[in-house]
Amino acid sequence: MEPKPTSLAAASAEVTGEGCAEPRSSGRDAACQTDHDLFLGPAEPAPATKRKNFEEQSMTTNPEEDELRKKAKQLGWSGPAGMPLSVPGILEEAGLVMGTSETDEENRQRDSTAILSEIVTNLPTLRNPKDPDTAEAVASSRDKAIVMAAARSVVCVSSVPLDGKVTDQCSGIVVGWNEATMVARVLTCFRLIGGVDGLIDPKPKLHVHLPNKAVSEGQLLFYSEHYDIALVEIRADAPLEIPSFGSSPNYGQEVFVLTRDSESYLMARHGTISWLDNSDVWGRDHRMFLRGELTMNSDGGAVIDHDGNVVGMAFDEFNDSSDGTGILAVSTILGCIEMWMKFSRIARPIHGLRLRTIEMLNVAEKERIYYDYKINSGYIVNEVETDSTAEKLGIRSGDVIVSFDKFGIHSLPRLEDLLLSLGWEFLHSRSDSSTVDLKFEVYDLVGRCTRSITLPVELCDASLRVRTR
């Protein structure tokens, strides 16, 4: 038995039956022993004639193999000198595309046409988009370039239980990178690993799916139920990029939301920061909202402006309305991370008030308040917590806080940053007290007067550190 041909040309000769019929003694005839002459034969026909002859001789009585050759020809797969591939050659090419040096025995036993159809289906240049809405959200060349650059820092984080099957997943943002140790820190959504009762698993097993499809095991460092964030550390095999961080988003600003799934597939949506009402959860008035369609894994997705800067993180189902996605401003995110990195905790004052801004009112109501009370900005007190210090000091629903600590801060995200800064000062001072004083001016619409109030507020630890040993 003759040895199996190893080259594409020799494989083709095996199928067509071309080669030496009998030994040749010298000169040109001796060259018949090479793959080149096995492929071309002694007659040296013209190229067009060679192709025609090969195709005619290659046709078999097996319709599946004939169909396989047709599909390979449509893909432009060919052997030396542009000649069509033999069936073994096509299977060899299929193995390379499928990520193996040669097709395994199982694939050899499968229907040949099915193998090639699978390859064609999975070619990124030929397959249908996994998320067609991304194309509509990111249409212009400029937007595509901006999104692709920012997406280098967007990952998918999945929770993996003991059976090894992914049970839940969300997106994440690379917020730290150490080139020397190849260690990265990824910010993601707390609800991936916990709920109202804390962590689902005290030592959750996490996988981080990187943009290049690599998967790294993640170690949970800390989490905050209040802000719904978690920080995960991974070790990467290739460098990762930290995004450019911008300023906090403004109401009415147009942004993109970038997410990934466990196959590292990028998805994007375009939306507008909306003037929605305040959160239904106590202490979470700082959330902004995005009007627009959601993607899969919106939780933990990066919110970027039209210059590619990360301005926030997205969270699904922050409110009861179906037309809004929650946004945590980047200034609050960075403040939390920096405080935790320095003090291993996040200190935040609890004032016992539910607030919304004058700016959130419709223009008719805003105009009437201005003409009746000469108030153009500030915070409306929606509700006061029962038996709280604020209630004892006479703050009532309907009052308007016109300034905090003499700062005319008139957005809820900026107010949250002010509260975090008070927590930072408290931790830095290493005070033995557990309270800080919050000073503000309150306008009483009933009495038509302004009062200065000093509210002593308790500090809470808005984070929990995870013990790794």
Automatic annotation (TrEMBL):
Gene3D superfamilies per UniProt: 2.30.42.10, 2.40.10.120
InterPro entries per UniProt: PDZ_sf (IPR036034), Peptidase_S1_PA (IPR009003)
Region: Disordered, residue numbers: 1-69
Pfam families documented for this protein: Trypsin_2 (PF13365)
Chain ranges passing through the membrane: none
Name the record gives this protein: PDZ domain-containing protein
